[in-house]
Amino acid sequence: MARRVGRISPFNITALALGMAFLYLPIVILVIYSFNASRLVTVWGGWSLRWYHEFFNDRAMLDAAWMSLRVAAVSATIATLLGTLAAVGLVRGERFRGRTLFSGMLYAPLVMPEVISGLSLLLLFVALNAERGFWTVTIAHTTLTMCFVTVVVQSRLASLDRSLEEAAMDLGCDPVQAFVRVTLPLILPAIAAGWMLAFTLSLDDVVIASFTTGPGSATLPIRIYSEVRLGVKPEINAICTMVIALIAVLIVIASLAAKLSSSEAKSAAPL
Amino acid sequence: MSGQSPEIDTAKINTAVAQATAPANDTPLLRVEGVSKKFGDFRAVDRLSLDIKAGEFFALLGPSGCGKTTLLRMLAGFETPDEGRILLGGRDIAPVLPHERPVNMMFQNYALFPHLSVRDNIAFGLKRAGMAGAAIDTRVGEMVALVKLEGMEKRRPDQLSGGQKQRVALARSLARRPKVLLLDEPLAALDKKLRESTQLELMELQRRLGMTFIVVTHDQEEAMTMANRIGVMDAGRLEQVATPRDLYEAPASRWVAQFVGDVNLFDGEVTSQEDHRLTIATRDGGSIVVAEPRDLIGKTMVSVAIRPEKVRLSRRDPASDAGTLQAVNRLEGVVTDVSYLGGSTVYKIKLDSGAVVRSSIANTARLDIDTLSAGRRVVAWFTPDDCMVLEK
């Protein structure tokens, strides 16, 4: 008989426990202490929702959170639109001159240090004499997250059988109708996953946002960062716990969408 | 959502086709005139001309990479010819986009829309044509019945077997009632048994609908089973266009003879020609007498081709009992290999001259007491009429 897959041995359990602890213990501690009644971050004073209550009465924090959510939603939407167009152009478009250069440049923000992206965007906005605030952060986040969307959509599109679009055209669709009626429904899960990825990336970013934001429009990560410098308040734990919960939900949805997408890709693949 | 323009254009072409096909039946429905298509430096299709009549079941046969799929894709409108014209019902369809052509294609991998049900896949082209809802339901019902998929309408393509997918693809491409149906390797993905039964169904369907079918295949048996006429392609050119029988019994070239079926070839030189009989001295030192109906043998260097089933074997000299010594070619040798194939047995005979001849003998009796085994001396013989003379 073959060895059972995933056999549980003491060694495996220890390795798993240590690995998980390394990754998630800090987060678990953060979550637990967000329910701490004590004012001191490191001293346990019993369970309480006090700091959540505090947060919802903290005007400045709430503004920052609202700002972050707006930036994330708007930049993710623009990035998804542009990223999808770029992916369609790269995979389905005619082989244009400089195509390789274009696809290389699209990936540059993936590996570019954020400090450099942030600084160059800051210089651009200063040169343009743009008033820094909501829109500058949103534009900066769009440039950051667009390439992630492109990567996700591009891989899905590349795995899609070209003859599906040809079949649609053969059956009376012009190229635009073929895209809307056949290609778009099939890459929609990837587009959704791309949007959620862009949303979480934007929500999470502190470096680029701090370069490109202006006075009075701090995002949540910037606000938290500046608060922490003055000393960690338990309220921060409560905020972080809520952000973690939001991101966890989005990641689960995104991975479900990606799973749906790949299972459909399988059935669409040639025999 | 579906624009009216495709519908109108299709109607225009349909009437053009009807006008061209109705009065004189001898004008071809589809005419390919000197069409070429290059991909970079590679000539996929090379100045190819072809006429296809309405109602024909035509097969494009050739090895992979011979350009047959490219030609089909040009007919569908997915590729544009670099040179030449394609006329459908007398009208040049070069400027007509794929979605406006009265031609539908069945794709090799079926290209079923995975996000749509069987019903919606079949109805897809009808909706684009702006057909009314009730009419679509009726037509889809007809199509589902035609390909025997009743009860499967609500399934998704990934819930279907290979054979069922093939039927959905067929129904979808037939639903718009195209003037010409293009089939790209329609049976390649099916197993042998299913392929054979589907061949017969396709033939029956084509006869019943009276549609023109053009099928691309690399399988010569499939082409010969289904098609009225076969165009054999190699390196972007049509080597021969003929009925299955002519293709097999009177191939136009050595290449066609070898591609379609099995063949024994002898290279040689024409030494004398009298009374429609040619005598050919073969390179291995023998001589073969052949009947030559075509009187235009320009070259002296030729190949003699004999199909294995026309080579008969005997242990004794056939001339002694046939009494027609002049008319029979006899080659002596030793059986080296016997392959029993069920319906027939193939013998390999090494001739005394050194050449190898294959002979295929039908197993007409269940109990064969007279079987030839390896090592036995035999006479391989065939009549002049069974030989084909091919110029190189």
UniProtKB/TrEMBL annotation, chain A:
<feature type="transmembrane region" description="Helical">
    <location>
        <begin position="12"/>
        <end position="35"/>
    </location>
</feature>
<protein>
    <submittedName>
        <fullName>Spermidine/putrescine ABC transporter permease</fullName>
    </submittedName>
</protein>
<dbReference type="InterPro" id="IPR051789">
    <property type="entry name" value="Bact_Polyamine_Transport"/>
</dbReference>
<dbReference type="InterPro" id="IPR000515">
    <property type="entry name" value="MetI-like"/>
</dbReference>
<keyword id="KW-0813">Transport</keyword>
<keyword id="KW-0472">Membrane</keyword>
<feature type="transmembrane region" description="Helical">
    <location>
        <begin position="236"/>
        <end position="258"/>
    </location>
</feature>
<dbReference type="GO" id="GO:0055085">
    <property type="term" value="P:transmembrane transport"/>
</dbReference>
<feature type="transmembrane region" description="Helical">
    <location>
        <begin position="178"/>
        <end position="198"/>
    </location>
</feature>
<dbReference type="GO" id="GO:0005886">
    <property type="term" value="C:plasma membrane"/>
</dbReference>
<feature type="transmembrane region" description="Helical">
    <location>
        <begin position="134"/>
        <end position="157"/>
    </location>
</feature>
<feature type="transmembrane region" description="Helical">
    <location>
        <begin position="105"/>
        <end position="128"/>
    </location>
</feature>
<feature type="domain" description="ABC transmembrane type-1">
    <location>
        <begin position="65"/>
        <end position="257"/>
    </location>
</feature>
<keyword id="KW-0812">Transmembrane</keyword>
<dbReference type="Pfam" id="PF00528">
    <property type="entry name" value="BPD_transp_1"/>
</dbReference>
<keyword id="KW-1133">Transmembrane helix</keyword>
<comment type="similarity">
    <text>Belongs to the binding-protein-dependent transport system permease family. CysTW subfamily.</text>
</comment>
<dbReference type="InterPro" id="IPR035906">
    <property type="entry name" value="MetI-like_sf"/>
</dbReference>
<keyword id="KW-1003">Cell membrane</keyword>
<feature type="transmembrane region" description="Helical">
    <location>
        <begin position="71"/>
        <end position="93"/>
    </location>
</feature>
